[in-house]
């Protein structure tokens, strides 16, 4: 194995991550055509509705009962970065923000002191299948920022830079830069209190498309970063000459370059990189704090305040079918 590769880990739905990252889920569902209510036009009576993660027929309802997705639930103390490659997500939250995003868009939400949100997957095509492919990445907040006000940011696909790098044969690898500068190309701004907002933390979130028979050199970064490469689509790829298997994570030495060679159909990777925060983490479900006392306080605060309550008519809130991609911000954030 290459000296650049420290460890190989097989992947399932929930991917291994390392400080400053807390969690990464890969949702890949081929939903059937939609019914008139933006749900799947298919029987649901064979599914454990409310807890459907089994992948029956190639798709899941997750916690949804008529529309797939994740109805209203709380968070505190970290950020969610949701990258939607295919399909759409309807967002609604307790601070009054809402949106529909997808087809390459990213939503970056700082939960901070506490927010409820729902993430539903409206099916909009009533004539054909409705594929959904997304990553949800949890990025920790340092203790000084765990109780900042919630913040909701949209990184629209058309504003997210894609850098094309040609190899010696003229084949182009595409690097989509969600976070972290690549070849002097800066991403769209992330929320102001994010660990990624300080360039000294070297946070990078890149989507890498390696063409058939293409070659690309992942450049070295500085030492002592967490750096993990996830191989989630493709066939025959080598990393520094070593065969890589689909659905594997590769923990990398951050100050070493890595040569990716593709000998099959287009290969796709996610790269997560960042300087570790290096603080003790106490996590229970949707809350991530530094001490048990802070975690207990998070539950007490949520029981008392509901983090602002729920201003929407449904806990599985979806927006009008005719709406395209949009974002509406809370009154306080709109003023800022």
From TrEMBL:
<feature type="binding site">
    <location>
        <position position="73"/>
    </location>
    <ligand>
        <name>Fe cation</name>
    </ligand>
</feature>
<dbReference type="InterPro" id="IPR011051">
    <property type="entry name" value="RmlC_Cupin_sf"/>
</dbReference>
<dbReference type="GO" id="GO:0046872">
    <property type="term" value="F:metal ion binding"/>
</dbReference>
<dbReference type="InterPro" id="IPR014710">
    <property type="entry name" value="RmlC-like_jellyroll"/>
</dbReference>
<feature type="binding site">
    <location>
        <position position="117"/>
    </location>
    <ligand>
        <name>Fe cation</name>
    </ligand>
</feature>
<dbReference type="InterPro" id="IPR003829">
    <property type="entry name" value="Pirin_N_dom"/>
</dbReference>
<comment type="similarity">
    <text>Belongs to the pirin family.</text>
</comment>
<keyword id="KW-0408">Iron</keyword>
<dbReference type="Pfam" id="PF02678">
    <property type="entry name" value="Pirin"/>
</dbReference>
<protein>
    <recommendedName>
        <fullName>Pirin</fullName>
    </recommendedName>
</protein>
<feature type="domain" description="Pirin C-terminal">
    <location>
        <begin position="208"/>
        <end position="308"/>
    </location>
</feature>
<dbReference type="InterPro" id="IPR012093">
    <property type="entry name" value="Pirin"/>
</dbReference>
<feature type="binding site">
    <location>
        <position position="75"/>
    </location>
    <ligand>
        <name>Fe cation</name>
    </ligand>
</feature>
<feature type="domain" description="Pirin N-terminal">
    <location>
        <begin position="63"/>
        <end position="139"/>
    </location>
</feature>
<feature type="binding site">
    <location>
        <position position="119"/>
    </location>
    <ligand>
        <name>Fe cation</name>
    </ligand>
</feature>
<dbReference type="InterPro" id="IPR008778">
    <property type="entry name" value="Pirin_C_dom"/>
</dbReference>
<dbReference type="Pfam" id="PF05726">
    <property type="entry name" value="Pirin_C"/>
</dbReference>
<keyword id="KW-0479">Metal-binding</keyword>
């Amino acid at each position: 194995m290459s000296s650049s590769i420290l460890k190989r880990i097989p992947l399932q739905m929930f991917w291994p991550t390392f400080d400053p990252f807390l969690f990464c889920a890969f949702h890949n569902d081929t939903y059937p055509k939609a019914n008139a209510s933006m749900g799947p036009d298919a029987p649901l009576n064979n599914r454990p509705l409310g807890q459907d993660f089994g992948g029956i027929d190639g798709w899941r309802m997750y916690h949804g009962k008529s529309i797939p997705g994740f109805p209203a639930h709380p968070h505190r103390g970290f950020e969610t970065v949701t990258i939607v490659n295919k399909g759409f997500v309807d967002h609604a939250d307790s601070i009054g923000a809402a949106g529909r995003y997808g087809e390459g868009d990213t939503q970056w939400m700082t939960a901070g002191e506490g927010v409820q949100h729902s993430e539903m997957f409206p099916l909009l095509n009533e004539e054909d299948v409705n594929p959904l492919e997304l990553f949800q990445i949890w990025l920790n907040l340092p203790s000084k920022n765990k109780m900042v006000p919630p913040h909701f940011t949209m990184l629209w696909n058309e504003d997210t830079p894609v850098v094309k790098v040609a190899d010696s044969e003229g084949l182009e690898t595409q690097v989509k830069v969600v976070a972290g500068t690549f070849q002097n190309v800066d991403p769209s701004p992330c929320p102001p209190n994010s660990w990624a907002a300080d360039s000294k933390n070297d946070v990078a979130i890149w989507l890498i498309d390696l063409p058939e028979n293409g070659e690309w050199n992942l450049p070295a970064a500085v030492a002592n970063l967490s750096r993990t490469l996830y191989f989630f689509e493709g066939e025959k790829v080598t990393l520094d000459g070593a065969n890589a298997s689909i659905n594997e994570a590769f923990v990398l030495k951050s100050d070493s370059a890595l040569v990716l060679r593709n000998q099959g159909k287009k290969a796709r990777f996610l790269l997560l990189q960042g300087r570790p925060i290096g603080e003790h983490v106490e996590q229970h479900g949707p809350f991530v704090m530094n001490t048990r006392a802070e975690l207990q306080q998070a539950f007490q605060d949520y029981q008392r305040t509901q983090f602002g309550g729920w201003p929407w008519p449904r806990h599985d809130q979806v927006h009008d079918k005719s709406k395209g991609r949009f974002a509406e911000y809370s009154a306080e954030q709109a003023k800022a």
